[in-house]
Amino acid sequence: MTHKATTSIARRYRVVAIEDPKPKNMTRSAAGSVEQPGKNVRQKAGLNRVLLDANLGEFRRQLAYKLPLNGGRLVLVDPAFTSRRCSACGSFNDPGSSELYECAACGLIIDRDVNAARNVLALARGEIDAASWTESKNARGEVVRRRVFGRRRLPQ
């Protein structure tokens, strides 16, 4: 199944942007320690099984070698905040457990996965990073680039 899907993607698209999966981090144990036992350990174990069955690392590896063979390239995007950033205005919201993403700043209501996919594409194109900088002149007349801390500010 993985081979068929990655071959189809590699033949159909020239540039593929995906979040860089980190299966090792995603499947860490929730058992905790003796002093601080973990919560929902059984549920986390079930989720770990599903994530390992999905074989995200292998999917990424196969895309990485099949795309160049077909004249394409793979763009890996840092997955941090892709599901929390509004794809329309760039503000950050907590998506919660709902399947819909609702932006408190601009009122956008969209499927949560579609919102994240739009953010991944914008990050791959460099649109978000480029839009979060501004140029101005200092007292000596030199051009200075500064980070914009408005809507696009990263949460602490």
Task: Explain this structure.
This protein is of the alpha+beta class and 156 residues long. The protein is built from 6 helices and 6 strands. It has helices at residues 2-12, 23-26, 41-54, 56-69, 112-125, 127-131, and strands at 15-19, 73-77, 100-102, 109-111, 133-137, 143-147. A hairpin with a 6-residue loop joins strand 3 (100-102) and strand 4 (109-111). Helix 1 (2-12) packs parallel to helix 4. The N and C termini lie far apart (40 Å).
Task: Give a quick summary of the entry.
The protein has 156 residues and is an alpha+beta fold.
Furnish the topology, listing elements before pairings.
Blueprint: H1 2-12, E1 15-19, H2 23-26, H3 41-54, H4 56-69, E2 73-77, E3 100-102, E4 109-111, H5 112-125, H6 127-131, E5 133-137, E6 143-147
Parallel strand pairs: 1-2
Antiparallel strand pairs: 3-4, 5-6
* CA gyration radius, whole angstroms: 20 Å
**β-strand number:** 6
Strand content: 15-25%
Question: Which ranges are low-confidence, i.e. pLDDT below 50, for 5 or more consecutive residues?
Answer: 147-156
- Profile the largest sheet: 2 strands, parallel
Count of domains: 2
- What is the tally of helical segments? 6
Label the structural class.
alpha+beta
**Helix percentage:** 25-40%
Shape: extended
H/E element string?
A: HEHHHEEEHHEE
First-to-last CA distance: 40 Å
